[in-house]
């Protein structure tokens, strides 16, 4: 099959994403499509397309989401407006930095990380600076 005739439909992409999230290997995902359609010839893509989609789209998005998460959290905070807690956990790393997390609740009742900090000390001035 020529490359220009191969494509992954939106439903195929969604299934690939769900299977990747569930830990199902690309080859098993492809084999499930083959079994569902009755053979390789019935599909308009090959196993390599599934692997490429995972590499280019699914894994790339997960890496980018780490950096974007605080932007989404900030938007959620602006929309919902309430911070539920600020928690400091003592000496969680070898550098003796205090990790503080701002956690809110979204409209689904799920905890959402709004932000976090690493502080060298727990003086009142440090907390004032952080909350601003």
Automatic annotation (TrEMBL):
Q: Which InterPro entries match?
A: MULE_transposase_dom
Specify the MULE transposase domain's residue ranges: 83-132
PANTHER family according to UniProt: OS01G0519700 PROTEIN
Output this protein's name: MULE transposase domain-containing protein
- Organism listed in the record: Arachis hypogaea
């Amino acid at each position: 099959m020529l490359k220009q005739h191969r494509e992954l439909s939106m439903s195929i992409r969604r299934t690939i994403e769900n299977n990747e999230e569930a830990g199902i290997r690309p080859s098993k995902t492809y084999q499930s499509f083959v079994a569902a359609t009755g053979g390789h010839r019935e599909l308009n893509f090959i196993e390599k397309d599934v692997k490429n989609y995972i590499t280019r789209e699914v894994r790339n998005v997960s890496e980018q989401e780490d950096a974007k998460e605080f932007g989404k959290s900030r938007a959620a905070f602006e929309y919902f407006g309430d911070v539920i807690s600020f928690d400091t956990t003592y000496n969680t790393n070898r550098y003796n930095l205090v990790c503080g997390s701002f956690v809110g609740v979204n409209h689904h009742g799920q905890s959402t990380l709004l932000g976090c900090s690493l502080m060298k000390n727990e003086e009142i001035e440090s907390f004032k600076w952080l909350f601003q």
